[in-house]
Amino acid sequence: MKKDLLYIATLLCLLSISFIAKATIRPTYLRVEYKINPFLDDRKPRLSWELVAEGFDNKQTAYQIIVASSSEKLNKGVGDLWDSKKVTSNQTNQVYYKGAALKSGQQVWWKVRVWNQDGVAGRWSDNARWEMGKLDESAWRAKWVGKDLNHLAKGGAYELPPSPYLRKEAVLTKPVKEARLYISSLGLHNFYINGEKVGDDFFSSGWTDYNKRVYYQVYDVTTKLKKGNNAFGAILGTGWYAGYLGYALLVGTPQVNQFYGKFPMLKAQIEIVYQDGSRETVSTDKSWKWGLGNVQEADMLQGERYDARQLSTKWSMVGFNDSKWEPIGEFENKPGQLLQLYPGEPVRVVKELSAKTIKKVGQNKYIVDFGQNFAGIIRLKQRGIAGDSLVFRYGEMLHPDGSLVTENLRKARATDTYIFRGDSNAEQWEPSFTYHGFQFVEISGLKEEPKPDFLTGLAMSSDLHEAGQFQTDNSLLNQLYQNIVWTQRANYLDIPTDCPQRDERLGWTGDAQVYMRSAIFNNDIAAFHKKWIQDLSDAQWENGAYPIYAPIPKNKAGFAAIRPSDSFSPGWSEAGIICAYEVFKAYGDHEVVKQSYPNMLRFMEFLKGRTTNHIFPEGAFADIEPKGGFGDWLSVGKKTSPDLIASIYYFYCNKLMREMSAAIGRKEEADYFDTEMKASQAGFKARYIAADGKLKTQDSLYGDGSGYVEGQGGFSGHTQTAYANAIFAGILSPEGEKQAGAYLQELITANGGRLATGFLGFKPLLPALSKVGASDQAYKLILSTEYPSLGYEIVNGATSIWERWDSYIKGKGFVHNAAMNSFSHYAFGSVNEWMFENILGIKSLENAYRKIVVRPEIGQNGIKKASGSYRSINGLIQSAWEIQGAHVVQEVDIPVNTSALCYVRAASPKDILLNGKPLDRTFLRDRVTQEGEEIILKLGSGKYIIKSIFSLP
Ligand code: RAM
Q1: Which residues, in sequence order, are CB contacts of 221 under 8 Å at separation 6+?
Q2: Atom 5 of ligand 1 has which residue's CA nearest to it?
Q3: What region holds the Alpha-L-rhamnosidase C-terminal domain (predicted)?
Q4: Which of 279, 348, 351, 749 could form a disulfide with 459 if both were Cys (CB 3.0 to 4.6 A apart)?
Q5: Could you give the residue ranges of the DSSP H alpha helices within 357-508?
Q6: Do 94 and 212 fall within a single domain?
Q7: 595-619 pLDDT per residue, tens
Q8: How far apart are CA 845 and CA 702, in angstroms?
């Protein structure tokens, strides 16, 4: 009896243990192709999840995925599409769907469970889903429709036609069970069903090389339809397809707009499943009608003009009298033009800002200050007399006299006009087919003092998940972080643009590549860059070079249409390798490598073709415009030889290609890149390194420097930029790196403790200083408020990152005002990478942060406290530290299924308390090593508080 009781007790105990164990590890945040419950057209999409579990050292040892064709089946555990069964693996992301072939429109439900380190299965995740888009052309019935209204454009400085309005009514004979809208436009569209706008996204279907690829979106519109008559309507905007692009007008290119086509077109297909299972489709074709409406002008750069009197809001509802509207034109698909599901995240309004101040600046004229420089539009809420108009102009800065700075917009008109309908209540309006970069809005035509909330700032961005958090006890650094985040927000808008305000807004490749890792720490950019890296591949030149911006429309002769001399440049074109590499590293994404691999190989071949002795000697790129490329763009002081920089980049790209090739099993190529990398290292040494370790160039080979950017002053190899790049890329020998580190510091000191770098030099500057053990110098640079520095911008009121170190100088004002002077340029925000990797100390040791290093740089440098996090694809990593008197307290959070090497500054392991306790013997034996003044703790998942006696090196 006693025995029995004991047996039962033991059994109960075991059961409860296994029950607890079972409950502790669980997948959450299920995503497909980086998205939550998305529409997709990837036939073998990749699945991912995060894991949560209590306690320490939790790992996944196996998983099971079930994929079903209905939620009922999934709930019963029936994987009729795929049951992976138990798969022994620690992989939680980049897991390919390996089930039955999926059809167009197929709805898919899935869930996952995992086994932990003790082999105990956890509970199933919640159900998640995805739905397939259209997998081939035959699934499309809709035709392209559109109307050329260019003849209605009012003359003047800009040629801006009105937007065509499209409509169609259709009878649905039975009650609706489910409905989808598949929609694409060459240009931009707003789509309405029964008077309601579908979707909250802007600027769909995005900017691509429309000759090669056009995207579509899918929406669930079930609740918008009803049995009986339904009305469908659309307004089209020229957008990137037919509107103005870049600085074409400014530089005098004969063609200034309509780079891809003359007028916008729409393709929309509404697929309805009736409750009885039968189906109906309503598609765009020549049975649709078009008419004129309220949008009288709409252009991305020039702004929108909206006359609310022209058309009743009922135009997209049933019963509107469209007898005066005419049939729309129907157009064929362009051969070779792929129609695919938008792979990125849509542009949305991501933040709303209210006016900080409203100042009267003239008769009926006011200036609103939103207190923050951003990209987006305004929402107006105001009463007015029919026919009265308000004119909105946008600016990032004010002149000392309080007037709006618009000179730096160059030829971007950036002006919106609203003409009142004359409603008795306040009229509400926001433009649809334009956006501006601004903090200030000047409103003319306001006859009465406006209410404080008459205008709302709507900040737009590609709607990306937040990945980073960063805070310190230093308000300057905190503001810097906010400025970086805001500038990324303003420029990650369908493509990574250089700036959001002037007549440019192009996907500049140099800016994108220097900023790439910084961007990753702020947002989950994997889906965004899945799109843009494709844009880059589509934009590759015939000769294999990646361009200086992408997309890049081409003219009939095959040159850049916006400015024919825009071609390629060292430091810019390498984005094709570097951006793919950063996605590969951060997310463990092999697909991006495989997809663009043929393009990357072609580019490497192009580079190789220009080398002599595996590097680029002086003058190697003298044939491009500007000569030698853009070089260390916007640096101050002596210019760094662009060829020396190009040679370091060549070495670096070979190194990255070696790693990526090996990862996707291209052994032969990996070997080739290894050899070429080493050869370029030797070539670099022979040509660019002097006996004393100084970097040098043969200046005479540049002649008088004419044609080169700021070449008159001559070129040098002995610059901050040259050393920073060489150290960062790892092209030097250990001894050489030491010397370079010393020269770099010398140069900074000789420059009064100031930086002198441009786009290419600044990105590696602080990381290089940290690499050579000069972390304090890096801190000094980031905390400086003297010109040139990011702190200088902040003490002068910056809420975003400026294009130039001297965008504004006290006493001198806006020195470059009308030329190139953006106040929202993320390139110098590339310091973010150092803030996360060196202040917080979060680095990836293995791809995708499966193995993490936490090694914050703590010293006597003015910062006593820092905290932050990075949500990696393997989970949330947190790192915080604080100097408390004679101690440093570190708080570290390591995600389930990962491990970390955590560096603690202490003379001996005895000086460390881990979660309140001294390190025990087994821990000391198995998990502690020492490197100089640092103790390295090997930690599994869990939350840790590490207290150590503060010892400086
Ligand atoms: C400027 C862009 C961009 C830069 C190029 C070289 O016009 O704004 O930032 O990369 O030129």
Answers
A1: 179, 180, 181, 193, 198, 270
A2: 508
A3: 841-904
A4: 351
A5: 475-491
A6: no
A7: 999 999 999 999 999 999 999 999 9
A8: 41
- Give residue 307's domain range: 140-344
Interhelix angle 591-609/575-587, rounded to 10 degrees, is 150
Q: 230: part of which helix (H) or strand (E)?
A: strand 228-237
The residue contributing the CA closest to ligand 1 atom 11 is: 508
Nearest atom, ligand 1, residue 820 CA: 7
289-320 pLDDT, tens digit per residue, is 999 999 999 999 999 999 999 999 999 999 99
Residue at token pair 């029936």: 78
What's 414's domain CATH number?
2.60.120.260
Q: Are residues 253 and 307 in the same domain?
A: yes
CB 161 within 8 A of CB 152: yes
Does residue 4 register a pLDDT over 80? no
531 closest CA partner among 18, 924, 34: 34
- 354 and 311 in a common domain: no
Q: Please report, for the chain, how many H helices and E strands are present, in that order.
A: 18, 48
The identity of residue 387, as a single letter, is: G
Of the pLDDT bands very low, low, confident and very high (cuts 50, 70, 90), residue 950 is: confident
Q: Percentage of residues in the chain with pLDDT exceeding 90?
A: 95
Please tell me the distance between residue 91's alpha carbon and the centre of ligand 1 in angstroms: 40
d(CA 457, CA 116): 48
- Domain identity same for 340 and 352: no
Residue 937 lies in a domain: yes
Given a contact cutoff of 8 angstroms between Cβ atoms, the answer to whether 283 and 143 are in contact is yes
Instruction: State whether 239 and 153 are in the same domain.
Output: yes
Task: Name the one residue in this structure whose structure tokens are 């007037």.
Answer: 403
CB neighbours (10 Å) of residue 106? 15
Task: Match 């200083």 to its residue by tokens.
Answer: 769
Q: Is 71 part of any domain?
A: yes
Q: Locate the ligand 1 atom nearest the alpha carbon of residue 759 and give its number.
A: 10
User: What mean pLDDT do residues 889-896 have?
Assistant: 98
With a CB cutoff of 8 Å and minimum separation 6, the contacts of 88 are 61, 62
E strands of 23-101, at which residues? Answer: 26-32, 39-40, 46-52, 62-68, 82-83, 87-88, 95-96
Six-digit token string for 467: 């990945």
- CA separation for the pair 442, 415 (Å, rounded): 10
Task: Evaluate: CB of 633 within 6 angstroms of ligand 1.
Answer: yes
Decide if pLDDT at 953 tops 60: no
Q: Which residues face 827 on adjacent strands?
A: none
Count how many domains the chain has. 4
Q: What are phi and psi of 213, to 5 degrees?
A: -155, 130
Residue 433 alpha carbon to ligand 1 centre in Å? 24
Distance 189 CA to ligand 1 centre (A): 29
Per-residue pLDDT reduced to its tens digit, 88-139: 999 999 999 999 999 999 999 999 999 999 999 999 999 999 999 999 989 9
Q: How far apart are CA 182 and CA 216, in angstroms?
A: 7
Tokens of 772: 């050579």
Which one of 108, 129, 150 terminates a domain?
Answer: 129
